[in-house]
Design brief:
The complex is a heterodimer of chains A (181) and B (407).
Chain A (H helix, E strand, L loop, with lengths): L1 H11 L3 H23 L2 H17 L10 H23 L2 H5 L10 H7 L4 H9 L2 H11 L5 H8 L3 H19 L6
Helix pairs in contact in A: 1-2, 2-3, 2-4, 3-4, 6-7, 8-10, 9-10
Chain B lengths: L3 H10 L6 H14 L11 H33 L8 H8 L4 E9 L5 E10 L6 E7 L3 E6 L2 E6 L4 E6 L10 H10 L3 E7 L4 E12 L2 E10 L5 E7 L10 E9 L17 E3 L9 H4 L6 E2 L5 H12 L4 H7 L8 H5 L8 E7 L4 E5 L2 E12 L3 E14 L2 E17 L1
Parallel strand pairs in B: 6-12
Antiparallel strand pairs in B: 1-2, 1-11, 2-3, 3-4, 4-5, 5-6, 7-8, 8-9, 9-10, 10-11, 13-18, 14-16, 15-16, 16-17, 17-18
The chains are: A mainly alpha (181), B alpha+beta (407).
């Protein structure tokens, strides 16, 4: 935490090496988070890029109130949610009645994103309703607390816990027999 | 049946590494935001960014000045549409390929600063091939189809692909035409100081770099442009942004005139990708552009630019709202084979990113063969917009060209 505060202090004073360090420290976890949320690595990297551009612009006036990783993860989650909303709004109507994908579908992109072993996890995440996916991913990939996620989603902690439980159950069902645990 | 805890464990192990492309993009953004030298701790990053923006305006002003003068000289040289005595000026200018001018520009801090510029056109007379512009603290020059800048105050170098010194898009002839569509006036009078007859031409245009109005003075005897003033508004209000007071014409100039060497050890960073604030309202029109939902930015750029070059004029105005006021003829290239598209050879990948108040920006090179057989790379800015209606994009502007010779 002290190290993060020092980084932010240097960043606010125009030290670009601090900005580079911040990026290097958090880049993989942010790309993982965005990819798990959007199940599209290219879009995920656009989101992470935009978050960093916004962060760079906040230089000189950025105030760290919690953890830096948590702040950046929240920014990624917010941007990813907006992207997902836009996607849904403009999705062709046939998509709504199309057969849902199954986690064992041969999707080369998933293997490229998550690796051969975990590609079905990506496939299963893609099937979850977005709100459930967001809770599961923020909780498990970013280690966020339920009440923080509740703040991000604008719902009660109970609702978030419910979404988490339903999300995990659905994942368990989808992944049954498709992954060696 | 898998246990919930096991699935949690698997998800915790999920790891998607950042690609080297993302690394490059972010490092580029950081480099562009970087202050000139080691920070002394007195400046905040916000202040440094403001400083950079102010300096950028200086470079922009210098480049714009050169663009305006060249537009008035080389472009008219090859304009085929007669207007007042312009056809005579065109004839008089034909033997000149290069020029030198001196004058003043008003910097962002409202200081009047001297400027000095050398420029030479390509053999077609439509495009700047070499230029060297010097202001009090900034020098801009072109080399190998790139535009360089060196800020002496900050000891910092800038570089961007393409020659980006003249405000035009599908060809400078279009801007000559554009100058005619809005309040174009030519008035003849006497200059009591020299006893010479002068023609004063005023006009205004909304180009890719924002609104601009001009006052040009032509010598009636020689038919040559002798001075020029410009304003960053359509009504010539306030102190001129630039004032070119003396122009010398040359049949040609040697390459050595244009050579410039930045101090040894200068690091060149990418010039930030931006769009003039004055153009943002046009670019925000939700009826313009294409939907980019479900597409990566790369795909969206390919789609909109793939369509742009061969679209009919009414569609071009939708894809690129900045040309909304241009006539069909202007959009098609004003009948000049050097400006009329024969084939789209390649739409490249995103080379640089940036952002405006509307959203992210992407810079994409488009290699085009024109009807006279010449090939040019045009760097086009695509503006992405994220609104309640979803993600969409429009063509936001032109940012330089590269001369590739003939096929």
């Amino acid at each position: 935490m002290l190290e993060e505060m020092q980084l932010v202090w240097r960043f606010n004073r125009g030290h670009m090496d601090a900005l580079r360090e911040i990026y290097e420290l958090h880049k993989h976890e942010l790309v993982t988070l965005a990819t798990a949320l959007l199940v599209d690595k290219s879009e995920a990297e656009d989101v992470v890029h935009d978050v960093f551009v916004g962060f760079i612009r906040s230089g000189g006036r950025f105030r760290l109130t919690g953890s830096l990783g948590g702040f950046l993860a929240t920014c990624v989650a917010n941007r990813a949610r907006n992207r997902n909303k836009s996607r849904r709004r403009d999705a062709p109507s046939e998509a709504a009645v199309a057969e849902p994908a199954t986690p064992n579908n041969e999707q080369p992109d998933l293997a490229a994103m998550f690796g051969e072993e975990l590609k079905c996890v990506g496939g299963a995440l893609a099937i979850l309703p977005y709100e459930q996916r967001e809770v599961v991913v923020l909780r498990l990939c970013s280690g966020m607390r339920f009440h923080t996620i509740a703040g991000i989603q604008g719902v009660s902690t109970n609702t978030v816990q419910g979404r988490y439980r339903y999300g995990l159950d659905k994942l368990k069902e989808l992944l049954d027999g498709h992954i060696n645990l | 049946m898998k246990k919930t805890e096991d699935i949690s464990q698997v998800l915790r192990q999920l790891r998607v590494p950042a690609s080297s492309k993302l690394d490059e993009r972010i490092r580029g953004e950081i480099a562009r935001a970087a202050p000139a030298g080691p920070s002394d701790g007195e400046f905040t990053l916000g202040q440094i960014l403001l400083l950079l923006l102010r300096k950028k305006s200086t470079r922009y002003t210098l480049a714009t000045t050169l663009g305006l003068v060249l537009m008035a000289v080389f472009v008219l040289n090859h304009s085929t549409t007669p207007a007042w005595a312009m056809d005579q000026s065109i004839e008089a200018l034909k033997k000149y390929r290069a020029l030198h001018f001196t004058g003043y520009y008003t910097s962002a801090s409202r200081q009047t600063t001297p400027l000095d510029a050398w420029a030479r056109s390509d053999t077609t007379g439509n495009w700047v091939e070499n230029a060297l512009v010097t202001g009090s603290d900034v020098t801009i020059w072109t080399r190998d189809n790139k535009t360089y800048g060196y800020d002496r105050a900050e000891k910092k170098g800038y570089v961007q692909p393409g020659i980006d010194l003249i405000n035009s898009w599908l060809g400078p002839n279009l801007l000559t035409e554009a100058a005619r569509v809005k309040d174009y006036k030519a008035v003849e009078g006497d200059d009591p100081a020299t006893g010479q007859k002068r023609v004063i031409v005023t006009c205004s245009l909304a180009g890719f770099e924002g609104p601009e109005s001009l006052l040009m003075e032509f010598d009636v005897r020689t038919k040559l442009l002798v001075s020029l003033k410009s304003w960053h508004n359509l009504t010539r209000e306030g102190t001129p942004a630039t004032s070119v007071e003396k122009i010398l014409y040359f049949e040609d100039l040697p390459d050595s005139v244009f050579s410039h060497q930045a101090p040894e050890g200068t690091q060149f960073i990418e010039t930030p990708l931006e769009i003039p604030e004055a153009n943002l309202s046009l670019l925000s029109d939700p009826k313009c552009g294409i939907a980019a939902e479900g597409m990566t930015r790369e795909q969206a750029c390919q789609k909109i630019l793939g369509e742009l070059w061969t679209a009919p004029p009414e569609r071009v105005r939708q894809l690129c709202p900045i040309v909304a006021t241009w006539s069909d003829e202007m959009i098609r290239g004003s009948g000049d084979p050097n400006n009329m598209v024969a084939a789209v050879l390649k739409i490249g990948g995103i080379e640089q990113t940036g952002s405006s108040k509307l959203g992210p920006l992407a810079l994409v090179p488009c290699t085009i063969r024109y009807q006279d057989g010449s090939v040019r790379v045009n760097w086009i800015v695509v503006q992405f917009r994220e609104t309640d209606q979803g993600t969409s994009c429009v063509v936001g502007g032109f940012r330089g060209y590269g001369l590739e010779g003939k096929e």
